[in-house]
Amino acid sequence: MGVSDASRLDGWEGQLDRVLRVVPYVSLGVSILLTWLTSPFWPVESLPRTTVLAAAVGLWMFWMVTLHPRWQQRRVLMGLYFAVLAILSFLLVLHSPLFGFFSFTGYLHAAYALVGRWRYVGVVATATSTALSQSGGLQTLQAGTAGVAIFGVVLFFNITLSTAMMSLSWVADAQAARRKREITALAEANEKLESAVAENAGLHAKLIAQAREAGAFDERQRMAREIHDTLAQGLTGIVTQLEAAEQAAERPEQWRRHVRTAARLARDSLAEARRSVHALTPQPLEAARLPEALGDVVARWSTDSGVAATLVTTGVAQPLLPEIEVALLRTAQEALANVAKHAAASRVGLTLSYMEDLVTLDVRDDGAGFDPAGARPERADGGFGLAGMRERVRRVAGTLEVESEPGAGTAISACVPAILAGAAA
């Protein structure tokens, strides 16, 4: 697939053609494979017919996108392409909820094929198929009022959060365009200066290119980390609470408690996502010092996950540079998210230690553990994991150590310099 517009290489849309070469086909193949493997245990409507429908979806994408990349400029044709794809995806999910792995790629196709506010229509269509998959498929809708209510709640959260992510992408794109215009204006001023300082022309051009690349890369990295720390972790908590609500459908009090918790997580995630766009301080640190903010995060996580968690603070707590406090807070959140998803732990302990020149954060659990020396595949949920924590701590001149072994739990230790707030000034 070729790039339809060279200028898109400067923004996130420039990567879509590369992603669409592989991701939709891989996710479609995985969905077909899982459907066949689980068919003895999961009722699938007409497995051969489902396979033929999936093959038709693959051929539709291959013909309309892979073989004819220049058709992307034909907006009416692309609207028809997405409409047919959305209908086929919904039919696949009706046959088997496992095709939710594929239907999620509809967000990529919406960004690729649609323009303007039509992208929101594409987001809603994709969120509908995704929500049906997450809530258990057609059987959930046939389960009565409780099933329809669960589908409605999941659909609401999917539409809200996916719309927020689309808005985030638009804001980031607008900021990148503004920076590009500013850089263009600066380049024009430099061209006038080159006549007087011709010997520095090459150096100026190189510095401008490096500054542009570094700025774009840093902004993409920041947005990726912040979205992961807000939306990804929030969605994980929401799905967990809604699954618990589904299991408690016959117990109204527990069902309402899980739905209220899911709603609170959605509101918190949406608020943090909006703050991330403008690079604001995370909400827990806005009106509280780091120990209190960590204590609130640990208490909420323990309530939502059902795992006992404690925080101990040693030394004299002092206000640190905002960048350092944000790094420690995000590291704790990511570590707790990993425990909830992978560790199967019964207890978690956090220790925040203030020393003369250093501040350390230790997170220990008694869960399943793993081999740190083994290969760590890229996470399927798009998260950054240990690599992301190391990068975040490294950016404030700190270090991150991990100790673990299978069956013996995991210990993560972040060590950062104790630079007091106001020291930079």
UniProtKB/TrEMBL annotation:
Its cofactor is [4Fe-4S] cluster. Residues 176-206 form a coiled coil. GO terms for molecular function: kinase activity. PROSITE patterns: HIS_KIN (PS50109). The chain crosses the membrane at residues 22-42, 48-67, 79-102, 148-171. CDD domains: HATPase_UhpB-NarQ-NarX-like. The keyword Ribonucleoprotein does not apply. Gene3D superfamilies: 1.20.5.1930, Histidine kinase-like ATPase, C-terminal domain. It catalyses: ATP + protein L-histidine = ADP + protein N-phospho-L-histidine. Residues 226-420 form the Histidine kinase domain. Its EC number is 2.7.13.3. It is found in: Cytoplasm. Keywords: 4Fe-4S, Coiled coil, Cytoplasm, Iron, Iron-sulfur, Kinase, Membrane, Metal-binding, Transferase, Transmembrane, Transmembrane helix, Two-component regulatory system. Member of the two-component regulatory system NreB/NreC involved in the control of dissimilatory nitrate/nitrite reduction in response to oxygen. NreB functions as a direct oxygen sensor histidine kinase which is autophosphorylated, in the absence of oxygen, probably at the conserved histidine residue, and transfers its phosphate group probably to a conserved aspartate residue of NreC. NreB/NreC activates the expression of the nitrate (narGHJI) and nitrite (nir) reductase operons, as well as the putative nitrate transporter gene narT. PANTHER family: NITRATE/NITRITE SENSOR PROTEIN NARX-RELATED, SENSORY TRANSDUCTION HISTIDINE KINASE. This is Oxygen sensor histidine kinase NreB. It comes from Luedemannella flava.
